[in-house]
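Hi V.,

You were right to ask for the full record rather than a summary. Here it is.
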Amino acid sequence: MSVHKKVQSESGLRMLENVREICTLFPETVEHIDGFGHTSFRVREKPFIIMGENEHGTSLAIKTLPETQEILLQEERFFRPAYIGHHGWTSIYNSEKINWEEIRGLIYEAYCRTAPKRLIKMIQEDH
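Predicted structure:
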């Protein structure tokens, strides 16, 4: 069993900075560390990104649409996380091969799945 903890490794902190840079572009996003040590990005108390570290490295869990999850899981680099995967969450471990433009799009989708319509409208007007 993999036990996740707070992101502390050098590569994990770089990943966290990249994710933070993307997430803070969205209105009313709050960063939160829960009792398990997971770092999450939330809108209205609802998480759309969850990060943690274990013996496999730093993972980034993204709240995806079921169709998106199905497509992503066809690639080895993505996996269905325990406990939340059946709710549409999809994870990827940190690596030098991460395509940050792709991740930016997935985070945008996650935010739109979570945020109230009023906030979604605000960011869609900017695009």
